[in-house]
Amino acid sequence: MKRLEGRVAIVTGGAGGLGAATTARFVSEGARVIVADIDEARANEVAAEHGDKAFAFPFDAADSESVRTMIDGVARRFEKIDILYNNLALLTEVAMTQDTTVVDTPFDVWNDLMAVNAGSYFAACKFAIPHMLASGGGVIINTASGAALAGEAVRTTYGMSKAAVVALTKYVATQYGKKGVRCNTIAPGLILTDTLKRNAPELVSIMSRHILTPSLGEPEDIAALAAFLASDESRYINGQLICCDGGLLAHHPHAWLRLKIWSTHRSDADRCVSTKRHR
User: What is the predicted pLDDT for the residue at 265?
Assistant: First the structure.
C-alpha cells in the first residue's frame, strides 16, 4: 500500500535538488504533486518526469499574493490540499555573499531573506490551512536548517529566518493540531546536491570529518523523511524539529579529535600491558 495514495501535495522550491527528490518520492508513494517554484522552466522539467502525477505551478515566494494565488489555484483544481511541504530559500548571489555578520549585513538583504525564508512559509501556511480544515485536516512540513540551532561566523539572517520557521511550526501545531493539521520541521545538514558537489567540493571534504555517519546525506534522505512525516505513520508526531544531519549537532566539533587522541593513548596502553605480560 502506498502511504500517500490519493493525496494532493504541494512542494515549494520543487525545482531544486531537495524539491525534485521529494517530488519523486511523493509520487512513488501515490500522491499527486504540485512542483511550485519561481523557475517555471525547471519546474516543468521536474513535473514532466512523472507524467500526469506531477504538475508545475510558477509562483514568487517573496510576494504573498503570489503565494495565495498558487495555494488557491491548487485547491481549486484538485479540490483539496493534503500536504504542504515548504522547502525553499533565497539563494541569490547577493543573499549568499552579503548575509554576513550582524554589523555588516545590509538591511535590504535582511529584509529579502526574511521575506522569502520565513515570510513565504507563513503565507503558505496561512492560505493552505483553511483548505486543509475544510477537508478534515492535513500535513505541513517545513524546512529549517542547522543554522537555526547553532551560530556561525556568517549567514546571520539565514539562521534567523530558519529559526523563525522552527517557531512557526510549533505555533501551527499548537493552534491547529486538535483540528487535524500536523506541522513538523526538518533541519537538514549538508546535503550532496549537484550544485554543492559542483561549487563547493572543499566544503564537502571539511564537513565529512564532522558528521557521525560514513557519508554525507543525499537529497533522497530528506525526501524519505518528508514522506514519513507526510504519511499516517507519523500521526503522533506534531510540532517537532527533526534534524537530518548525520549527527553533526549531536557532538562538540572537536569530539572526533578527542576520540582519536583517546584511541591512540588506549592503543599505547594496551601495547604496554601486552609487553609486560610477555616478559
Answer: 60
Check: CB of residue 40 under 8 Å from CB of residue 57: no
Residues in the chain, pLDDT under 50: 273, 275
Domain that holds residue 69: 8-246
Residue type, 150: A
Burial profile 190-215: b = 16 or more Cβ within 10 angstroms, e = fewer: bbbbeebeeeeeeeeeebeebbeeee
Distance CA 247, CA 109 (A): 31
Half-sphere exposure (CA, 13 Å, Cβ side) for 264?
Answer: 6
The reply to whether 163 and 89 lie within a common domain is: yes
**Judgement on whether residues 208 and 276 belong to the same structural domain of the protein:** no
State residue 266's pLDDT score: 59
* pTM listed for this prediction: 0.90
- pLDDT score recorded for residue 180: 98
Task: For residue 55, list its beta bridge partners.
Answer: 34
Asked if the structure places residue 1 within a domain, the reply is no
pLDDT given for residue 203 in this prediction = 82
Catalytic residue among 85, 121, 158, 176: 158
Q: How far apart, in Å, are the Cα atoms of 214 and each of 71, 209, 224?
A: 40, 10, 18
**What is the per-residue pLDDT for 59?**
98
Q: Is 236 annotated as catalytic?
A: no
State how many domains the chain has.
2
* CATH number for position 210: 3.40.50.720
